[in-house]
Predict the structure.
Amino acid sequence: MAANTIDHNRTRQNFEGIDSVWLFGYGSLIYKVDFPFLEQKPATIRGWARRFWQGSHDHRGTPEAPGRVVTLIEQPGAVCKGMAFRVAPSVFEHLDVREKNGYLRFSTTMTFDDGGQAEGLVYIATEDNEAFLGEAPPADIARQIAQALGPSGPNTDYLLRLAESLRELGDQCDHTFAIESCLKEQLSSER
Ligand code: SIN
């Protein structure tokens, strides 16, 4: 699949006659809310696990030295916690550009912390996209993140802010926290 998903996403869902859509955010969409929303609620989705397996050439790295950002990997029984936003369909014009490096919009069922469920959308970078990097040991992922820098800032900010947001949401994301502690160890041993 082509690296730039903007055109592909525009053909995926028909928003005609729809006033608002639920969007599930599990990565930077939790803490970098640069879009208007009508409502916001912590939520979970089932069967997906958050992983730092996607390369970032346009936000937290460059084509020569990609950073690592999160995507979702199918995993039966897994529960992924995040933040759900109810947005106007026009918001996807901005989000499709922001998430253009490999992410496609998929339909999902989300369960809100305050009870109830809704159908909505989630951006996922599947392994057939050109920027997909895949699995690596936490220490290697942390080393790559420590070195990467892109137009949206250092890759370390992405990891540290995500880890902090997940703690605030009460999510025990072992994968994210393992990479965070490797990064902190590496940074303190460099001093
Ligand atoms: C998301 O946050 O839901 C998608 C991945 C990202 O932009 O970090």
Observations:
- The beta strands are 21-25, 39-56, 67-87, 103-112, 117-125, 149-150, 153-154.
- The first strand starts at residue 21 and ends at 25.
